[in-house]
Design goal:
Low-confidence stretches of chain A: 186-500
Distance between the termini of chain B: 31 Å
Mean pLDDT of chain B: 78
Strand content of chain A: 5-15%
Helix content of chain A: 25-40%
Structural class of chain A: mainly alpha
Radius of gyration of chain A: 31 Å
Number of helices of chain A: 8
Oligomer: heterodimer
Shape of chain A: rod-shaped
Strand content of chain B: under 5%
Number of helices of chain B: 4
Mean pLDDT of chain A: 57
Number of domains of chain B: 1
Low-confidence stretches of chain B: 1-10, 132-139
Distance between the termini of chain A: 7 Å
Shape of chain B: rod-shaped
Number of strands of chain A: 11
Largest sheet of chain B: none
Strand order of the largest sheet of chain A: 3-7-10
Structural class of chain B: mainly alpha
């Protein structure tokens, strides 16, 4: 589904806007300025006459007073006129935005993609080829139309913001009330609260844990807006590809997840040679995924498919579906809202024995937009099933990994976690596991998460940091944001998104 | 009462013109004192964006400042009118005082300017005569 981010922003920016009212106010201010100028001129003209009429020492005093009065009135009139001009500029910007917005229409859908006929004849295959070609053209036009509208919305939004900023500057010059010094947490701090963690079902290669990204959440367009009494108006709650990123947006395939934490990312090579990065948050990381003491399964590797990097680890991931800004909270095992850390199976603290059901629960926490669910850990020789009831603004993703057992005997672990995304598309990732030889360990994970990566990454990150991580550190926010800014440059590449996601 | 007329002429304050001036100032004050000038702009008028909300906020502040300035101007214009009124009143009061002075002057002059000695009469108190003599002696 093509992004409608900028169009949504534009719709929000125009919500409750009343251009006519702004125009009327601008006219009124201009007329007020004109009236004041007229009074000033009258007083200025009357001043010498008053001086002459009254005479003595009083006459010049009256003249000076009248002249001073006229000058002050002219200055006030100029300020009123400037305010009126600022209102005119704002009204024009609003009109432009409304014009662009009203010009939007839903591009014609390309329809369903043709399906390759099973056991089709040559003619059928040829027809299929034509259909696919035609569909591709329609789809390209469809996406181009969306992209064009997005670009138009982005531009007019920028114009509006610039016009508004200019008008705001004029108004500030008029009232000359300084902005107070910000105190406490700044406005628009990342909505990084929340937590929860993924659940480890079986040992997993740490490299499979993709780094969670984003965490910046929504930030106001005017970050310096700290005026008292002015209610911050949320811009848009949907993921913003231009701002800081969020947990709901997948990284580019094979990309390294953003590091949100104090420690450097863990890196390892997956089964298929992919390198992905785990995340070690600033908090304690006890109970990490893939602890060597786990009795089940062998090294388990998996790769993410089209949805992104290998996000699902041995079926151990609670699909941490995050809304905007939730990732950081998830990375820190404990959220401010009381999420508790998961204790994955196979951790050094409590290794689960064969034939037993180890159980760990992931914390529940409230993310910026989504909530982290909880999961149950599956252990060796049994079936563990994770049910991370997480949901967010992302979409479902799926990752599957299979592993090969390295120990004799037979152990099989199935960990399963699910996170339901609310929107977006579905990505799948899978990697065929090789059958175990002496003993077979199979780890299968299914983590419906956002496009196969975000959810999986977040879950992995949560599982990795399932200990007593910090929910949120305000002191670290700035540093985290700096990381995010650096890491998420790719998000600006709007052309990448549709191709990857679709 | 020639002396009174002379004093008014010396002051050279045309009360009618001053009254017209005051009327102008009052009229300006009335014009600027209406609530229709620099009307407030609701903050939500600029839409739901952060920049729009910011503009709405600062527009409201600017409107309040400008409206306050207008209100002060109206007060000032009315104050100027009142000052002119008081000035005119003071001039009138001074005229009355001057009239009294002129009366005393005429009385004193009458003490001097009798057509004959038989007709001489002085309404001034003796002390004044005495003081005047002493003063003249000193000179």
């Amino acid at each position: 589904m093509p992004s409608t981010f900028h169009r949504d922003r534009l719709a929000t920016a125009l919500a409750n806007a009343n251009e006519d009212q702004v125009v009327a106010a601008a006219t009124n201010w201009q007329q007020s300025a004109d009236l004041l100028l007229g009074v000033a001129a009258s007083i200025r003209n009357a001043s010498p006459e008053a001086k002459q009429l009254i005479g003595g020492q009083t006459g010049p005093a009256v003249d000076a007073a009248f002249t001073q009065t006229a000058e002050a009135m002219e200055l006030r009139a100029q300020e009123m006129a400037k305010g009126g001009e600022a209102l005119v500029a704002a009204s024009e910007a609003l009109r432009s935005g409304m014009t662009v917005h009203s010009g939007f229409s839903q591009p014609q859908s390309p329809g369903a993609q043709p399906q390759l006929p099973a056991n089709g004849t040559a003619e059928e295959l040829e027809a299929y080829g034509k259909d696919v070609s035609a569909w591709s053209n329609r789809n390209a036009a469809y996406e181009a139309a969306h992209a064009q509208q997005e670009e138009a919305a982005r531009r007019v939004l920028q114009q509006m913001e610039e016009a508004f900023a200019g008008s705001t500057g004029t108004m500030k010059e008029i009232h000359q009330i300084p902005d107070p010094e910000p105190s406490g947490p700044g406005v628009g701090t990342p909505g990084a609260s929340g937590g929860g963690a993924g659940v480890a079902g079986v040992p997993a290669a740490p490299g499979q844990a993709g780094g969670g990204s984003g965490g910046a959440g929504w930030a106001p367009l005017s970050p310096t807006n700290t005026d008292p009494g002015h209610p911050s108006v949320p811009e848009v709650t949907s993921p913003n590809p231009d701002q800081g990123g969020s947990g709901g947006e997948p990284p580019a395939p094979g990309s390294t997840g953003a590091v949100v934490g104090n420690a450097p990312p863990l890196t390892s090579t997956g089964l298929l040679g992919e390198t992905s990065s785990g995340v070690t948050p600033g908090g304690t990381t006890s109970g990490s995924v893939g602890s060597p003491s786990a009795p089940t399964g062998g090294p388990t590797s998996g790769t993410g498919g089209t949805g992104g990097t290998a996000g699902v680890v041995g079926g151990a991931l609670a699909g941490g579906m995050f809304g905007a800004g939730a990732v950081k909270g998830a990375l820190f095992g404990t959220s401010p809202s009381g999420a508790t850390a998961a204790k994955p199976i196979g951790s050094g603290a409590k290794p689960a024995g064969g034939g037993t059901l180890g159980k760990g629960t992931a914390g529940t926490g409230t993310a910026g937009k989504g909530t982290i669910g909880k999961g149950v850990v599956g252990t060796s020789s049994t079936v563990g099933k994770g049910t991370p009831g997480s949901k967010g603004t992302g979409s479902a993703g799926k990752g599957t990994t299979s592993g090969k057992g390295t120990t004799s005997g037979r152990s099989a672990t199935v960990g399963k976690s699910a996170g339901a995304g609310s929107t977006g598309s579905t990505g799948k990732g899978s990697a065929g596991g090789r059958p175990g030889t002496p003993g077979t360990g199979a780890a299968r994970g299914t983590a419906p998460g956002q496009r196969g990566s975000a959810g999986a990454r977040a879950g992995a990150a949560g599982a990795t940091s399932a200990g007593t991580g910090r929910g949120r550190g305000r002191d670290d926010d700035a540093q985290h944001r700096d990381h995010l800014v650096f890491e998420q440059d790719w998000l600006d590449d709007e052309g990448t998104g549709p191709g990857v996601l679709d | 009462m020639f002396a009174l007329d002379g004093v008014l002429g010396a002051l050279n304050v045309p009360e009618l013109e001053v009254a017209k001036l005051r009327s102008l100032l009052e009229g300006y004050a009335d014009d600027l004192g209406t609530d229709d000038l620099v009307r407030p702009v609701p903050g939500s008028t600029f839409g739901g964006s952060s920049a729009g909300g910011n503009l709405g906020h600062h527009t409201q502040l600017a409107q309040q400042v400008l409206a306050g300035a207008l209100k002060d101007m109206v007060t000032g214009l009315r104050g100027q009118s009142e000052s002119l009124r008081e000035f005119t009143y003071d001039v009138g009061l001074r005229d009355e005082e001057t009239t009294a002075d002129m009366t005393a002057l005429a009385t004193a002059t009458a003490c001097i300017s009798a057509p004959s000695a038989a007709d001489s009469a002085c309404a001034l108190p003796p002390s004044a005569t005495s003081q005047g003599s002493q003063g003249g002696g000193e000179d």
